[in-house]
Design goal:
Arc Repressor Mutant, subunit A; four-stranded antiparallel sheet
Length: 157
């Protein structure tokens, strides 16, 4: 991230991370600055990469994806990671991909309509990618926590 984040930026991030649809005028009022200042700061925070994305989060279950799955993937060689990622990007049900340490070379999160759909994704798509030598599937039964990271203000010296 380029540039420093000051206390006003942190306050703005704290407010909008709790409610992304809050009017900027209300953020400005809570911060004791003008709406124009908040608008400018939000723009700069977005440019810096402190704010990632915007919009609504769709509940996968509401559109038919009943199975949330994490898949640990082992590759023939770690150097194949980028090529495998490019292939995984072609599978729209995959929503996250991480290069990891530990038991797997990479860990992905995906959604499937049901077990048959999951099996198709695993057998006919993921495991067919050159370099993938094994997978381990972990099905999420329930998500108990989902939240933003807390915004921590630096201590005064």
């Amino acid at each position: 991230m380029v540039g420093k984040i000051d206390k006003l930026d942190l306050k703005i991030l704290e407010i909008i991370s709790k409610d992304a649809r809050i009017p900027l005028s209300e953020v400005a009022e809570r911060c004791g600055v003008s709406r124009a200042v908040v608008h400018q700061r939000v723009g700069k925070l977005t440019e810096k990469g402190a704010i990632m994305g915007s919009g609504y989060h769709v509940n996968p279950k509401m559109i038919g994806y009943s199975t949330c799955t994490y898949v640990g993937i082992n590759l023939e060689k770690g150097s194949m990671y980028n090529d495998v990622v490019n292939q995984l990007k072609q599978i729209p049900e995959i929503v996250e991909c991480h290069f990891t340490t530990g038991n797997y070379t990479m860990l992905i999160k995906l959604y499937a309509y049901d077990n048959a759909h999951l099996m198709d994704l695993l057998n006919n798509h993921i495991q067919q990618i050159p370099g993938v030598i094994s997978t381990e599937t972990l099905i999420s039964l329930d998500q108990s926590i989902k939240r933003q990271l807390p915004i921590i203000f630096p201590k005064e010296d």
